[in-house]
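User: I'll paste a sequence; please echo it back and then give the predicted structure.

Assistant: Echoing your sequence first, then the prediction.
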Amino acid sequence: MRLMYFAVPGRAEASRLALALSGMEWEDVEIDGNTFQKMRQDGLLPWDMLPVLETDQGMLAESSAILRFAGEKAGLLPEDAFMRAKVNEFLDGMGPIARAMDTTFGIEDAEERIRLRKSLFEPNGAATKAMKTYEEKLAQSPHGWAAGTEEMSIADLKLFTELFAFFSGNYDGIEPSMLEGYEILLAYHHQMATEPRIRHHYRDITSDDIRWTFLPNAFDS
């Protein structure tokens, strides 16, 4: 299998992680902008977007669908039907913060882009509301996992990789200091970053890497 996406964590990192934990053979293919446009022109993208997962059964698109597929293979979906639905509920519920960020990517004026991104983290901003919701969900979870599951699930892979990647420095206007005061989220970050499988996966990542936010103690300072 081949997972194709840009050379950033973005919406593919959770699937990369699930595929790595699944034990299946797969290739992580990094795509640049020119290749992406050519794939679109050639009709190789089912929904004209990345990521896509190339399998022996055909091409699979949409990040959540890929994550569910990879998560199934990795044993990261509950067997109980209701709890599986709760995991899917959490995946769907994370949509607003990503959509809010999407509105800033096409803005060429740096000052305007930074202003809009910072506004997302103001008291009534979309990112602030989302992060408070995540804290409420985590506070209600009996085991500390995102969807209230007994063990780590794909909901955790998505929350961990997508949320904390925003603070990597890759998005101008968004700074690690914006996490100050979110003690539940920071405790959750520690829980995920020190989970043995997660820690092993990122064992070769350094503080200079774009994925430094996935390391234990990344936000201690």
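Residues 81-214 form a domain with the Glutathione S-transferase Yfyf (Class Pi); Chain A, domain 2 fold (CATH 1.20.1050). Residues 86 and 147 are 6 Å apart (CA to CA).
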